[in-house]
Amino acid sequence: MTTTLPRPSRPSNGPPTIALPALPVSKTRKSTGALPSPTNKSAPNTPRSGLRAPSTTFAPPPSPAPTSALPQPRAVSTIGTPARTLRKTVSINSFPQPPRNETRINSLPPSPLGLDASRNSARKPKNPTTPSYLHLSNSTPSLLNNSGEGKSISSASVRMSDGLFSVSSPPQSRSSSAQDSYSTSATTYDDLADGAASRHAGDSSEKRSSKTDGKGNVLVSVRVRPDAGGNENNKTEGEWMVDGRRALISCRGKEGGDYHYDNVFSTHDDNGKVYDHIAKRLVRRVMEGYHGTVFAYGMTGTGKTFSMQGTATSPGVIPLAITDIFSYIRETPSREFLLRVSYLEIYNERIHDLLSMSTGGGIGSNAGQDEIKLREDAKRGVYATPLKEEIVQSPTQLLRVIARGDQARRTASTQFNSRSSRSHAVVQIVVESRERVPGNTGGESKRSGMLPGGVRVSTLSLIDLAGSEKAAESKERRTEGSHINKSLLTLGTVISKLSDHKDKDGKSDGKEGKHLPYRDSKLTRLLQGALSGNSLVSILCTIQIGSAGSAAAANSHTTETINTLKFASRAKNNIVSHAKKAEEALGSGGDGGARVLLERYRMEILELRQQLELQAKAKKDRKALEEEEKVAEEEKARELEAEYRHEEQMLEMQLARTALKERIDHLNRLILSSKSIGVNSGSFSSLGVRASMLSTRSSVATPTSGRPTIERSSSLTSASSTVGRRSSGGGQRLSGGETGPEDDDSVGEFGDSVASLAAQNRALQADLADKNRYIQTLEKRLVQARRASSSRASTGFSATSKGILVGEDHSVAALLKDKDAEIIDLRARLDDKDRILAALRTAARSRDVAEGTTDGRTSQLLDNMPQPPLSPPATVTPGTGALDTRKRRKSVDEMSKMLEEMIHERVENGQIIRGTRGSVRVADHRRLESLPEPAAELEPLA
Ligand SMILES: Nc1ncnc2c1ncn2[C@@H]1O[C@H](COP(=O)(O)OP(=O)(O)OP(=O)(O)O)[C@@H](O)[C@H]1O
């Protein structure tokens, strides 16, 4: 297989670089050419290093001791450069190895290449009695080695301490990218590194390496993909030899050599193991506040996506990292976390948001998206914007988000991969964390006045690069390929030049060094922070060394593989990380604060909680108000109902009263009629007497007193007719059967008057009886009404009803009293009538005596009437002529006088009042006192 990438002219001291991109720096080449020598890798500093057959029996050869079976790598001849060799040795040995593997690896047989002996022999003089991996582990601790992890993960108490980070980056190493450093807080791990270095002051080379080496924070691993043909015996695949235990890959070809890395994974190693070695610790560090970057680099089809994403049965780095992230959160109750994730791809040098795109990854699938640009600020470094970030709360949710992005990622079938990634894909997980205030959760901290600590923000970038490839047949693939190759070339260039930015101690020297072309591609721009040392870095390079079925393919693979191996070596040599734990941002202000969602959310939660409390209070007040209103409404309703019932009762009473009143009016009319009858009958009787007198007078022609007499006569006629009518009407109303006799009685002159009086008397008595009955009926109805009211009053309106009943009682009592008074009045009038009748009888007898009549019809008629106690009748003596007339006149005069006296007497007694025209009427107080008095006016007799 051939590569389209330009081949740089290779220095003689480097490993084969036939297929490498044209890297610009010869110095880099030298550096790169100094591939890990067996000697340099010989000193294990971790359990796994120890497994690489640490032995005190090995001599420390200054140069590698390649096996005779392998071609002597040119790199070996250059490893004699002390500084380079030392640095490489220290950095590689400082890489972590999983503690669990220690036993297993210790039991492994020595490397067939015999490189362990030379490496370990190189360590032996320094500490012949102590396993070299332990020695180096102490001397060059790194954020990614076991010592660090042991402290940070084993227990919460250790996690809580900042001293747990025995990071090896010396202060000098910071200078390489100090201008971009996120960290302004503790330099704990630097100090510790210095301390660690000083413990080995006796070994100047080691001390130097510990100072210069930020590479303790950079892991470079190589993974060999199984051959598609099924030949997995990768130990000796043609000219290649892979030794996972010693992290060695040897090539026996013309550009061959020995390549040492932090980890070499054979075809037998699964994704779990790969993750454990390349990313597990880094993920932990990210959770503790460091930035971390893991990326996979390699030729197309060599297993980058397989390693990063994995499969359902063999999850890759990304899903395993997610699992660990949430495990860490669970294990760390002392802090609270907020995770947000973004997912972008760089396709044809354009950035696309995979979380905002529709799935399918086709052209135009991101139509409508704002162009995503890269920006840089002091706090965040280089970042893409605008980019969708999703907050995730569970591994499942996070995996789902990433799976959605994967769906949107552009893939296509290529010569080497049926589903080749055509873009660089970057998953970025931002971890915000804050220490919980003991005993307080949520809003309680505010209430207690204790503020929690600041928020720490760190980022984990998981990058699956597109694979380098030769020109494809289709134009589209060629375009994609050219962009991919260009960006990968820029990446290689930047990494190569990184060594130029370091002084002899490995410190970055931006002024003197060459320009770093980060801006030449979006990929390098995005990786700028990681490459310049602000992040812990783990690079997984994937290769395929099988023949893949054809000599051409095998050849192509070899070239590409060697390119990849060289890239890995340069990365290991040149990238220096001095990552620091991110500072804790207090408050929500400022640039840093603006992106600290945890703080913003906390503030938002507080605000919302306050709003909630206010709302709850308002709701409570409103409820109380509503209750009051409800009570008031109920009260009002009750009042209205009571009022309504009262009105009903009043109406009933009114109706009853109206009925009573009507009846009373009717009775009054009857009474008045009776009175009129009584009075008029009295007048009539007297006038009747008088009429007879008048007729007598007429006969005696006494015109002197004619006028009044005539008037009186007229009046009598009128009154008589009135009485006749009223009496008739009243009789009809009271009892129809009684009208007959009355009508009969009303015929005739004197006889008629007397009969009428008798009829009137009967009528009055009947009326009286009728009234009594009516009064009884009224009393019954009142009792019934009272019962009805009291039953209604029992439904809750007792107070009001009482008032009604009391009023009713009063009105009924008054009514009864009125009626009683009227009855008494009526009786008194009857008495009056009786007296008048008696007077009339007397007058009639006197007349009879005076006229000498013997029939006594008038007096007899009158005698038939009830006899009131009257004065004894005057003695009448018969006479003739003028004497008789004189006697009659005298008799009439006497009678008139007697009547006048009687009236006068009553006027004096105050029983009656004399009117201005001589009329008389019953005194009011007499009425009230129920004294018998005629209600109608009595015409004066004289
Ligand atoms: N270690 C491995 N074990 C088993 N199968 C593997 C391994 N590595 C890769 N493969 C298989 O090889 C094929 C190509 O792998 P993958 O797509 O991961 O390559 P790649 O490097 O991502 O390619 P590209 O750059 O074109 O995207 C896949 O079918 C994958 O399953």
From TrEMBL:
It is found in: Cytoplasm, Cytoskeleton. Residues 217-574 form the Kinesin motor domain. GO terms for biological process: cell division; microtubule-based movement; mitotic cell cycle. Residues 598-657, 761-788 form a coiled coil. Residues 1-12, 37-48, 148-158, 696-707 have a biased composition (Polar residues). One of its GO terms (cellular component) is microtubule. Keywords: ATP-binding, Cell cycle, Cell division, Coiled coil, Cytoplasm, Cytoskeleton, Microtubule, Mitosis, Motor protein, Nucleotide-binding. Pfam families: Kinesin. It comes from the Eukaryota. The keyword Flavoprotein does not apply. The keyword Coiled coil applies. Residues 200-214 have a biased composition (Basic and acidic residues). ATP binds at residues 298-305. GO terms for molecular function: ATP binding; microtubule binding; microtubule motor activity. Residues 134-147, 166-190, 713-726 have a biased composition (Low complexity). Residues 727-739 have a biased composition (Gly residues). Residues 1-219, 696-750, 847-889 are annotated as: Disordered. Required for assembly of the mitotic spindle. Belongs to the TRAFAC class myosin-kinesin ATPase superfamily. Kinesin family. This is Kinesin-like protein. The lineage of its organism: Eukaryota, Fungi, Dikarya, Ascomycota, Pezizomycotina.
